[in-house]
Amino acid sequence: MTTDASATAARRPGEQALTALGLGAPALDPADTSAHTFPGGGRWRTEVPSCEGPEALAVILKEASRLDVPIHRISQGSGVWMLTDAEITEMVEATGERDIELCLFTGPRGTWDIGGSTRTDSKGGGLRARGHDAVAGCVEDAVRATELGVKCLLVADEGVLWTLHRARLAGLIPADTTLKVSALIGPVNPAAYAVYERLGADSVNVPSDLTLDHLTEIRRVSGAPMDMYIEAPDDLGGYIRMYEVAELIRRGAPLYLKFGLSKAPAIYPYGHHMRDLTLSTARERVRRGRLALDLLARHGADGDMAPLGSRLPGELNRFGIQS
């Protein structure tokens, strides 16, 4: 028995029914397709964010196994300094057993500092590290985390990013440490995106309200991996873009699909007083991931996932280091 190729070809949401009604969408422009991939092949990876400790991690891994959700990276938002050595080690070992990259946030940030500007309408400097001591705290976190086996660090300050990039070049932290830029300082134009890449970013979390055309513009100047919330938490807008996932990949590859959760209270900095909420939202993030992956499969667009266990970004453009 032969299979009709049109039945298995990638399609857009509602395409067949709308075409039959004379409402078909305009043809996609091949020029909008990103020319970039992850090293070793693949155009997209997955990430489960807001995993705030070993207990939440165990919930995520169990649910991912139950729902068959592939995971490339698990990230945390409260910070290295909010975890004990034993907790970090437990998370490193659990993710290492499954060949998943663990990414922990570095150090103090402006929204938790004594500076009042972050509480004004302008938000001041936002999450950025205020002063030398805040940068030092981020570096302290980076050294401690990498000594315990963490291979990915999340940063929310350009100076911290550049400092940690220089630190890995100097051998102060392992050379294969990857640096991820937080969504809360994410660039919104191609020029800024290229600057983050040159400062040392190995993946850059862009705001989830960027348009498809914005992604195409970025990809014309940079091949650095991009992170994007498919469903954003409320403090990042609460956007739900599941039906756009195939087009986000086409335009934004290489792309990390981040499975966030809207209508959920903020949990940073995490403590056991928020345990029940944190565990229930961790479980639901994995379920949301399953929903997004099911949509991709239903539209015949679930191919080209990067191999599980892959984590490095490939060759990127950097600013030179002057002596």
Task: List the defining traits of the structure above.
globular, alpha/beta, 323 residues, 10 helices, disordered N terminus
* Through-space gap between termini: 68 Å
Mean pLDDT: 91
Q: Please tally the β strands and state the result.
A: 8
Q: Describe the sheet with the most strands.
A: 8 strands, parallel, barrel
Radius of gyration: 20 Å
Q: What's the shape?
A: globular
Along the chain, the helix and strand elements come as HHEHEHEHEHEHEHEHEH
Task: Produce a short descriptive summary.
The chain has 10 helices and 8 strands.
Question: What does the model show?
Answer:
This protein has 323 residues and is α/β, with parallel strands linked by helices. Helix content is 36%, strand content 11%. Helix 7 crosses helix 8 (212-219).
Outline the secondary-structure elements:
Layout: H1 5-8, H2 15-20, E1 44-48, H3 54-67, E2 73-75, H4 85-97, E3 101-105, H5 131-147, E4 152-155, H6 158-169, E5 178-181, H7 190-199, E6 203-205, H8 212-219, E7 226-231, H9 245-252, E8 255-259, H10 275-298
Parallel strand pairs: 1-2, 1-8, 2-3, 3-4, 4-5, 5-6, 6-7, 7-8
Helix pairs in contact: 3-10, 5-6, 7-8, 8-9
